[in-house]
Amino acid sequence: MPYYLYRVSQVGPIQQLEKLAQFDKFKPASAAAKEMRMNAASKQEIFRVVFGENELQAEDTLNTPREVQPVFGDEW
Q1: Whole-model pTM?
Q2: CA-closest candidate to residue 57, choices 12, 14, 19
């Protein structure tokens, strides 16, 4: 399954996804994302690498909110 590189931008409450590239292996996808993060025009630009069977599954993964992980410890 391929790795997809997306630019994620937040316009108000709506998240916009722009597919930038597709890779067969993680290492080149990660390197491309790091390069784009370093050369980003602003800190508002977010670049994500996501794994999926196809673009639809990759975009669905990006649009699915993550569950908040519980924090355990004495400081709480």
Answers
A1: 0.80
A2: 19
Domain segments of the chain: what residues?
Answer: 3-47
**Whether the Cβ atoms of residue 62 and residue 6 lie closer than 8 Å to each other:** yes
Q: For 5-62, how does the pLDDT look when each residue is reduced to its tens digit (9 = 90+)?
A: 999 988 788 889 999 999 999 999 999 999 999 988 777 789 999 999 999 999 999 9
Which positions ≥6 away from 60 have C-beta within 8 Å?
A: 52
E runs forming strands in the chain: 3-11, 14-23, 46-51
Spatial separation of the C-alpha atoms in residues 49 and 12, rounded to whole Å = 23
Question: What backbone torsions phi and psi does residue 67 show, to the nearest 5 degrees?
Answer: -75, 145
Around Cβ 4, how many Cβ atoms within 10 Å? Answer: 24
